[in-house]
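Consortium newsletter contribution from the modelling node. Members have asked for a concrete example of what our holo predictions look like. Here is one, prepared for the zinc ion complex that several groups have been discussing at recent meetings.
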Amino acid sequence: MREPDRRLDAKGVACHVLIDGWRTVSPRFVFHGYDDDVQGESVRPYLDTEGKLPGRVAAMLIESADGLVLVDAGNGRFAPELDVGHVHEELASLGIPPWDIRCVIITHGHADHVGGLVGPRDEPAFPDARHVIHRIEAEFWSSAEAQALPNAAGLPARTALMALLDAELLDTVEGDAPVATGIDAIEAPGHTPGHLAVIVNDAVLWAGDTFVSQLNIPHPEWVSLSDMDGRTNEATRRRLLERAAAADLLLAAAHMSISGTVARTGDGYELRPSERS
Ligand SMILES: [Zn+2]
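And here is the predicted structure:
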């Protein structure tokens, strides 16, 4: 079932959450070393009848002053066994053709974020967009190590990066980098080596896969099996949570089905869900 248009208001700059699809995942994947005795009480209310956690796959479209900016592009054709790959339909439902996208920020190289960057013949799906990725992320997914990952996990990123390089559409960034007016790419390593988060108009923090569950806000130490470096990601989470709390940012993320502001508590942080997510 398609979700209605989901908007996040970045102080007057409209952001649209684009749903690539929904999937269910084991809590043992979302929380590495899952222990029902320790985590069950918090996690159990979210489990479906099969004991899995429902989770979305999402990208974000920003109506920036410099034109349309897309953050990630979903699975594209790379997960045919799942009901995903709907980012392009989401754009069409907003009346936006792919050539209207001026910039694409790539948070990281996992298939559910880069698959939709290429079309059926491996051509760039957004032919008039400058594509931005962290230098370290581009180097990792171009490496022999990434090509040796099981289940051809490196193939979508390699395919996309080669297509974008060929078309001279790829820009690498380092450090925290302004990408367009009011849009900053923020270094957020750990999930992958050069993962980027995005801050829009000092109001919305799109955390990519830094947070894969809303339970990561009270429990930034519950790292995911998909984190390449869990302890580095935990440190990144704490840094982003502190920044979100201090600046009253709306925190949203690709696989987190609710968004909200972050409040400090006695010993950590909690998410205050917004009315619309
Ligand atoms: Zn992901």
